[in-house]
Predict the structure.
Amino acid sequence: MTPVRQSVPDVGPALDLSRSCFTKFISMVLSEELLSSPALTTFLLISLADCIASMALYIPFTFLPDEATHSGVSLEDASFLIASMGISSSAGRIFSGWLCDRPWCNPAVLTAVMVAAASSPLLLFPWISHYVLYLSLSCLFGFLTGVWIAATSPLLVRVLGLSLLSPAFGLMTAMQGAAALTGPPLAGALVDMAGDRGLALYLAGGIMCVAAMVYMLAYLSMKKREKKLRRVAQI
């Protein structure tokens, strides 16, 4: 008996086409220079952490004045809390620029510490009722987040090099804007479901803590790569 050959459909071209389309889409988002960078994993971790932290960044700007007025603070004083966060954020950015110029400063560690510390005021806001404490914690939150935001560029230069700063920073800014749009609506939905204004600030503090942990993962990834490069250089 002569064996009957069964024809197998050739899916190679279709598979290659789908892979080609996917590769083109990724290259459009990340750029070919970022895709070919050996520090791509670290950059993706930094981008993820930045997006998570950006979700929490604008929640206190939206919900803190209402929380303060509910605690007995006047509307005028509660409105000034937003201004105090903005003013202290400017001071934090100036301080961050000076700090990142120091040779002993690691921007990855600085960013992780600042984001973790920024969760403290958010978690303390629902527990206080005096205006002085609200003002102090608002200034602290603005200062810490200002240091974090200004340290982004030095961090990207440390990880990717100066040549990739423009595409990396542009992509992170776009992702940051999209993430910032999701934070306040998510917190508002939580407040509507539970009926507790303080939950919005608890949510922001929890998100900041998660972002700090992802920043630490990025730092460990960066240190692992730098150690590998030092070993190669010693050979």
